[in-house]
Prior knowledge:
With 93 residues, the protein is of the alpha+beta class. The chain has one helix at 73-85; strands spanning 5-10, 16-23, 36-41, 56-57, 89-90. A hairpin with a 5-residue loop joins strand 1 (5-10) and strand 2 (16-23).
Amino acid sequence: MRFAIDAVFVDRDGRVRRIVRELAPWRAAWCARAHAVVELAAGALRSREVLVGDAIYVLPVRGTEPDEGEAGVVSSASKSLRITAANPAWLGS
């Protein structure tokens, strides 16, 4: 990637396993127990109190859900996740 990001690694239950703030461009990070990672704009976590062990969830943005029987469901879901990751809904806030 060409720009810094914040990364939140989560397990299958949505629990935060690792947080990487302002990961520099062209660098990688990983977490052995993570199932997925939520990538955010660098600095997005500064104003949020996200801690390892917190539970998070991601909701689709209204109007981005694919229509029934629509081809390309995977790409629509991926687009929805990218849009939602920019404005995550944090449990406990």
